């Protein structure tokens, strides 16, 4: 992560910040003392090599996937699969009364149910639901419980329950990204997936991508 703009004659360039090597935010210490926890939100078709690798390294990993056959599966010593879908709202009380074991929850609700107070890494690929889920994390102050965010964001359409004109959708996206910045989350990773269609709000854009993976670190993390 760059810590400064381009250098001037009187101000030499500062060295980039190696986030993963910073003891405040890297996971080496948490893994060593068995206090590392990763939540992964996604669907069955996702590649889970990252999750398996983190579990093998010593991190407690919880994968939330509504396509899992059993409610809770211990895949390996530290890798759990849960048949749960993370949403931006809990089920309506009337629906919940009929289906007490509904597999849709807000992240804050999951944390309370599992008795987890902190997540070192939250990784999410929610196929265009990420914007509303991110909004919920901001509105309900769940962000302060998260050390790092790794989100796959989709730009080919506004996203689930994001209505209005193209400009209003962009303003909504920008407001969420700005709020992350205001809460001292700093972007340290950006990957543009050029294998995906070159679309932005259903328009062809040269050298663009409809899908990016972005990583932020919570600089207030303790």
Automatic annotation (TrEMBL):
Coiled-coil portions: none
Annotated organism of origin: Odocoileus virginianus (White-tailed deer)
Methyltransferase domain span: 32-161
Gene expressing this chain: METTL24
Protein name: Probable methyltransferase-like protein 24 isoform X4
């Amino acid at each position: 992560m760059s810590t400064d703009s381009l250098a001037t004659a009187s101000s030499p360039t500062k060295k980039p910040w190696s986030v993963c090597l910073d003891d405040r935010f890297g996971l080496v210490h948490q893994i060593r003392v068995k206090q590392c926890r990763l939540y992964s939100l996604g669907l069955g078709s996702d590649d889970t090599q990252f999750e398996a690798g983190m579990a093998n390294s010593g991190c407690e990993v919880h994968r939330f996937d509504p396509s899992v056959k059993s409610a809770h599966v211990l895949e390996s010593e530290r890798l759990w699969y849960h048949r749960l879908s993370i949403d931006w709202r809990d089920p309506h009380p009337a629906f919940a009364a009929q289906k007490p074991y509904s597999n849709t929850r807000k992240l804050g609700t999951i944390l309370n149910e599992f008795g987890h107070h902190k997540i070192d890494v939250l990784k999410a690929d929610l196929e265009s639901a990420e914007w509303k889920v991110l909004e919920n994390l901001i509105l309900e102050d769940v962000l302060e419980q998260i050390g790092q965010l790794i989100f796959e964001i989709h730009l080919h359409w506004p996203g689930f329950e994001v209505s209005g004109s193209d400009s209003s959708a962009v303003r909504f996206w920008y407001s969420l990204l700005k709020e992350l910045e205001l809460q001292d989350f700093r972007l340290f990773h950006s990957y543009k997936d050029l294998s995906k269609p070159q679309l932005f709000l259903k328009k062809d854009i040269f050298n663009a991508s409809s899908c990016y993976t972005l990583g932020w670190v919570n600089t207030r993390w303790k």
